[in-house]
Amino acid sequence: MSTGNLDFEQFRVFLEKACGILLGENKQYLVSSRLNKLMEQQGIKSLGELVQRIQTQPRSGLREQVVDAMTTNETLWFRDTYPFEVLKNKVLPEQIKANPGQRLRIWSAACSSGQEPYSISMAIDEFERSNIGQLKMGAQIVATDLSGSMLANCKTGEYDSLAIARGLSQERLQRYFDPKGAGRWAIKAPIRSRVEFRAFNLLDSYASLGKFDIVFCRNVLIYFSAQVKKDILMRIHGTLKPGGYLFLGASEALNGLPDHYQMVQCSPGIIYQAK
Ligand SMILES: C[S@@+](CC[C@H](N)C(=O)[O-])C[C@H]1O[C@@H](n2cnc3c(N)ncnc32)[C@H](O)[C@@H]1O
Predict the structure, then answer these.
(1) Model pLDDT for residues 47-76, shown as the tens digit of each residue
(2) How far is CA 46 from the centre of its chain?
(3) Strand 270-274 relative to strand 240-247, pairing
(4) What is the pLDDT of residues 78-93, one digit of tens each?
(5) Residue ranges lining ligand 1, Cβ < 6 Å
(6) 168 partner at 20 to 30 Å CA-CA among 54, 95, 159, 207?
(7) Burial per residue of 185-202, b for 16 or more beta-carbon CB atoms within 10 angstroms, e otherwise
(8) Among positive and negative, which fits the CA dihedral 178, 108, 252, 262?
């Protein structure tokens, strides 16, 4: 594949506009490794030609395939542990108290292959077991991602032993999954049915999402420019009820929005409360 500077620049502009992902200037190798196969299959020789093909054939599905290939889908169960402990011990009790008689709504805003929303659903089940009758109206989890292939994985609710080994205790595996044979496991219906999966680009309008009590937007903003990140954080604020909570990734911080969010130190971990 030819990755001339002009071609690469054109591709960088295309990708940021399509999904917010900002490629560093020296990321030619990353682009080649992720797109080589697709471009070979399509007989496309350069990134410039690829961008042109996407623009002239908008219905070909090529745009979606390219964006899909360029996203990083790394995830695991109960990632970083503390968000799910803070959810059970602080955020759920507070939100139940603040919203009596209402079903809690939680958004997993870049859900990858489903480990995050299903971990939230398991954490809710654990909360209900030790706080019987408190979550009377239940909880709904809306899980969204840009990637069609990831969402297809999520919806099956099935995982292989490699995925299962990443962050899931034996106890949770036995309680929340059914063996399917050949090293595969299926998440049980009560955990699965709490989660609704939807295709959604974080750059698009949030109007159809409604309001949430809790938002998980973890390990995705790191790929965006400071301006796009700020814009998304302001729009997420618009989806949160006052007093609702935002969980970011362990290495992500929220700077410069003091009118929108208050930082809450949870030892371990930091979360943000909507003003
Ligand atoms: C590294 S994964 C994070 C998964 C999960 N939140 C976690 O922390 O384990 C990042 C996800 O963000 C998604 N993504 C990237 N750009 C996006 C966008 N503009 N809109 C929605 N999802 C996006 C990718 O498809 C990918 O599944």
Answers:
(1) 999 999 999 999 999 999 999 999 999 999
(2) 31
(3) antiparallel
(4) 999 999 999 999 999 9
(5) 19-21, 71-75, 79, 110, 112, 116, 145-147, 150, 201-203, 218-220, 249
(6) 95
(7) bebbeebbebbebeebeb
(8) negative
